[in-house]
């Protein structure tokens, strides 16, 4: 579980540092857009009050607090699940990514009232209208990793063997 905790802490720190550097340090809130390497990388300020791609967005405080509670509950559930299994290193990293990313977005909702998204990437004539952040990448990669490396998956949890007690 040390690897899961370390991954969660590093993911959380990277997410918050990137938001501090870009959103606050480069004053993206006021500037709105910074073309870094267009169209491949553009910093575009977006406030996400919902979940992925702004789904279930609303200005109601109830939605905000509901999403905070849901992210905390999912993080706690993943932590308990991984602790109760015999996780391999890939499952621990996946869990840490998901938890660290979810907690990074929780801090945004507490601080700003919404998640600060700023990464926008397009390529090959396809323009991406959405922005995301490091936490979003981590949550997606973590969830995907838990599916791949969860119990019974290659490189993930080692199945527990039912043993018989000897008298």
Question: What does it look like?
Answer:
The chain is 55% helix and 11% strand. The chain contains five helices and three strands, in the order ααββααβα. Strands 1-2-3 form a three-stranded antiparallel β-sheet. Helix 1 packs parallel to helix 4. Strand 1 and strand 2 form a beta hairpin. The chain is mainly alpha-helical. The protein is globular and about 45 Å long.
Key features of this structure:
single chain; 167 residues; mainly alpha; 3-stranded antiparallel beta sheet; 5 helices; 3 strands; 55% helix; disordered C terminus
Short synopsis of the structure:
It is built from five helices and three strands, in the order H-H-E-E-H-H-E-H.
Strand order of the largest sheet: 1-2-3
Principal-axis shape equals: globular
The count of β-strands is 3
Helix count?
Answer: 5
SSE order and pairing:
Layout: H1 2-25, H2 28-31, E1 33-37, E2 41-48, H3 61-84, H4 89-112, E3 115-120, H5 134-149
Antiparallel strand pairs: 1-2, 2-3
């Amino acid at each position: 579980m040390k690897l899961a905790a370390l991954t969660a802490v590093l993911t959380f720190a990277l997410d918050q540092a990137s938001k501090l550097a870009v959103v606050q340090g480069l004053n993206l809130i006021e500037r709105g857009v910074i073309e870094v390497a267009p169209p491949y990388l553009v910093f575009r300020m977006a406030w996400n009050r919902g979940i992925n791609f702004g789904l279930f967005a609303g200005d109601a405080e109830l939605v905000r607090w509901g999403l905070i509670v849901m992210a905390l509950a999912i993080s706690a559930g993943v932590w308990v699940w991984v602790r109760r299994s015999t996780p391999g290193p890939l499952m621990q990293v996946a869990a840490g990514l998901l938890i660290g990313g979810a907690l990074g977005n929780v801090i945004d909702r507490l601080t700003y009232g919404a998640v600060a998204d700023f990464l926008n990437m397009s390529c090959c004539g396809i323009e991406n209208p959405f922005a995301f952040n490091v936490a979003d990448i981590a949550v997606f990669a973590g969830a995907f990793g838990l599916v791949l490396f969860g119990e019974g998956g290659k490189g993930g949890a080692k199945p527990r063997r039912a043993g018989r007690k000897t008298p």
